[in-house]
Amino acid sequence: MERTSITVVSLLVCLTFVLVKAEDPYVRLEWNVTYGTIAPLGVPLQGILINGQLPGPRINCTSNNNIVVNVFNHLDEPLLLTWNGIQHRKNSWQDGTPGTTCPIMPGTNYTYRFQVKDQIGSFFYFPTTDLHRAAGGFGAINVHSRPLIPVPFDNPADDYSVFVGDWYNKGYKSLKKILDGGRTIGRPDGIHINGKSLKVGDKVAEPLYKMEAGKTYRYRFCNVGMRTSVNVRIQGHPMKLVEIEGSHTVQNVYESLDLHVGQCLSVLVTADQEPKDYYMIVSSRFLKQAELSSVSIIRYANGKGPASSDLPAPPPENTQGIAWSMNQFRSFRWNLTASAARPNPQGSYHYGQINITRTFKIVNSRSEVDGKLRYALNGISHTDSETPFKLAEYFGATDKVFKYDLMGDEPSTSDKVTVASNIKNATFRNFVEIIFENHEKTIQTYHLDGHSFFAVGVEPGKWTPEKRKNYNLVDAINRHSIQVYPNSWAAVMTTLDNAGLWNLRSEMWERFYLGQQLYFSVLSPARSLRDEYNLPDNQPLCGIVKSMPMPSPYKA
């Protein structure tokens, strides 16, 4: 009996150990969000720092890790952070957009809890409240593959994050006043690289990054700007593209790469040149006036000699530049044989063989409403509510906050623009096609929270059903953002299989702020924990739900 008891106890101990080990690892962080003086273009401004840093702390994690970030808001205004590209499976409560959750009020804290479920790749976080995006507050989210999942390239000698984008010297509060007054913030003042800007010939005490001769490095580029597409290149060093927004790519080599607002990509760079300094160049794309640019120094360890002032030329501009950029986009291909977050190859998912159940055709527009600038999608210019829409749904109070489906699935035939909350009902697990049609003379970039999509087509002109024959139905990149060139269209496909409320937005923040966005409401009819999590216990309440009784929770 004694031996049997010991055996049973041993089995229980082992079982308990297995159960404990079965939970995915945690990454725990504590962030203090404060004001601080920053000067990306040399002009001191009030910026937003995280733990005193810009860029903020890097979230370095592995696929399926649980991320816990305790955010203390030391600003004198409400704050929300979003995790651009993280899908938050069943958990739109953590998405950090004004339509899903109440903000972190001044002098308080909130703990974000989410899992990077079945994801790998390069992403970033930033604040979504007001014009905070123009003040900094951004940082890297690098999600690595699990050790047992093969990666289609050797481990790099180091892994570098590079944040690029346009910048304004007016300061975010002044920019907000301009937009609130009904005017555009106009052309940016310059380009920054990791919150700094240099010109050729400037003396540099410390380089942006260092490389050792003969070694290969991973550079993760993200465009965290307000409105401007950029081109990135490194003097004398070709870049091998290996990943875009969580998908391994066919490993083509590029001398330069276009990167649109809100987008991220990874390249490998080999230090195979003469050991000395080299310039990394970031220049604006498709601006009406003169090009904006910035440089930074990449330094070889033990290298001797300054970087040459002979910079690689930027790509063409105007009509030729659009064609050049569009062709580069078409050269980006999904690596069908590589595994991503799961062991099965990416190409084992045959998205091109799934029947489309619904098509959304979305046209952006710019107009004036009551004498003030507004941007719209299919005639609806979105406005937020004091009560987040997701909370209104959860508490059964939607009739007091917003109306569903004010925007049609097709563009409006009228030029009238209605300012209202733009919430689209979507059917859970439907495979949908979204067409973005841009009739304006400026490039657009869109992002969808909670999902990734297959970017199957980009062409000039207007979209018609006959254009489907030109779609890439085999190896289009699975990603979360897509650019739409002037007077052109873009098509994406996705399965709306993530229950929650998800923001589809322009990544041009003036346009986002003035209405060029919507929310997809993806509700599971089962109201089950298998499909969506309950409201977190630590979630602050605001608006009309603050005084309402808690609804019955979802059940398994």
Automatic annotation (TrEMBL):
<feature type="domain" description="Plastocyanin-like">
    <location>
        <begin position="159"/>
        <end position="302"/>
    </location>
</feature>
<dbReference type="InterPro" id="IPR001117">
    <property type="entry name" value="Cu-oxidase_2nd"/>
</dbReference>
<dbReference type="Pfam" id="PF00394">
    <property type="entry name" value="Cu-oxidase"/>
</dbReference>
<feature type="domain" description="Plastocyanin-like">
    <location>
        <begin position="387"/>
        <end position="525"/>
    </location>
</feature>
<keyword id="KW-0732">Signal</keyword>
<feature type="signal peptide">
    <location>
        <begin position="1"/>
        <end position="22"/>
    </location>
</feature>
<protein>
    <recommendedName>
        <fullName>L-ascorbate oxidase homolog</fullName>
    </recommendedName>
</protein>
<dbReference type="GO" id="GO:0016491">
    <property type="term" value="F:oxidoreductase activity"/>
</dbReference>
<dbReference type="InterPro" id="IPR008972">
    <property type="entry name" value="Cupredoxin"/>
</dbReference>
<dbReference type="GO" id="GO:0005507">
    <property type="term" value="F:copper ion binding"/>
</dbReference>
<dbReference type="InterPro" id="IPR011707">
    <property type="entry name" value="Cu-oxidase-like_N"/>
</dbReference>
<dbReference type="InterPro" id="IPR034271">
    <property type="entry name" value="CuRO_2_AO-like"/>
</dbReference>
<feature type="domain" description="Plastocyanin-like">
    <location>
        <begin position="32"/>
        <end position="146"/>
    </location>
</feature>
<dbReference type="InterPro" id="IPR045087">
    <property type="entry name" value="Cu-oxidase_fam"/>
</dbReference>
<keyword id="KW-0325">Glycoprotein</keyword>
<comment type="similarity">
    <text>Belongs to the multicopper oxidase family.</text>
</comment>
<dbReference type="Pfam" id="PF07731">
    <property type="entry name" value="Cu-oxidase_2"/>
</dbReference>
<dbReference type="Pfam" id="PF07732">
    <property type="entry name" value="Cu-oxidase_3"/>
</dbReference>
<dbReference type="InterPro" id="IPR011706">
    <property type="entry name" value="Cu-oxidase_C"/>
</dbReference>
